[in-house]
Amino acid sequence: MKNKVINMFGSKLVPNKGVKYSELLEQFMTPFANEFIDTEYTEEIFEFAINAWNMANINAIMPKENIEEAMDSITKEGENISLLKKMIAHKTKKYKAFTHFIVDFELKEVEAGKDPILSIVTQEEDAYLANMMDSLENESTSDDFEENYINRTAITLRPQQPFLDWYSNLNPEEDFDEDFKETKTYLIDDSINEPEKWLKKKFDKFFMMELGEWHTNKKEWPQKRNYKMFTLWFRVEISENIYDLEKNPILKSE
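^ thats the sequence. predicted structure below, dont judge the formating
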C-alpha cells in the first residue's frame, strides 16, 4: 500500500495550502511507505522522516569533520540507520533545492470525521545551524541540576468516565473499578517548552498506549480520535519538577 505513511488516518492527508514544505514532506516520505508498516505511532514516522530531511541538509553544507558531531545531536538511539541513509540519499538526489530545515509539524483535526491537515514549521539554514551549535555548546551536565533532580517532565493520565464507559461496553461482565484507580505516568524530555502545547500535537500516541493497555483489538478502539476527546477521556496532570530520592539506579526496559 504505497500511501500508507500519509494514509495512517484512513485517507490521504490534506496538505496545508500555501505551505509548500508540507507537500514536499508527504512526497518525500511516500517511496518509503512500506518501510514503516510495523511502526505503530504516526508521529514517530514523521519524526524519522524529518530527521532524514534535516540530516541531508546538514550533509550538503557542513564540513565533513563536523558532520558526525552534528548527526549525533539529532539521531535517536535505536534508529534504523540503514533506512535513514537511504532517505538521506533520496532527499539529496530529489529535493536538493529545498534547503529549509523542518523544526516542527502538526497533524491538526479541524473537524470531526474529516482528514487532518498537515502543517510544517521550517527554519532557514543559518538560523537552524546557529540554534543547533548553541544547543551543543550549552548541553546540560549533572552539575547543572539540583540534587536528585531528574531532567524529565512527567505527564500523568487518569482515565475518566468516557474511557470507563467504552471499556465497560466491551467487557460488560468484568469488574474493573479498582483497576481504573491506577494511573500511568510518562516521562518526556524536560527541554520541551510548553508541554501542554506539545501534548496537543502528540496526544494520540498517549491515547493509543492507554487503549492498548486495556484492549488490544484496534478495530474496537475509537477511530476518529482528537484532542478534545483525549481531554474528555483522561484527566491530564503535568509536573516539571521530578526528583529521585533513591540511591539505586533506575532500570529501564527496552
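Confidence is low (pLDDT under 50) at residues 1-19.
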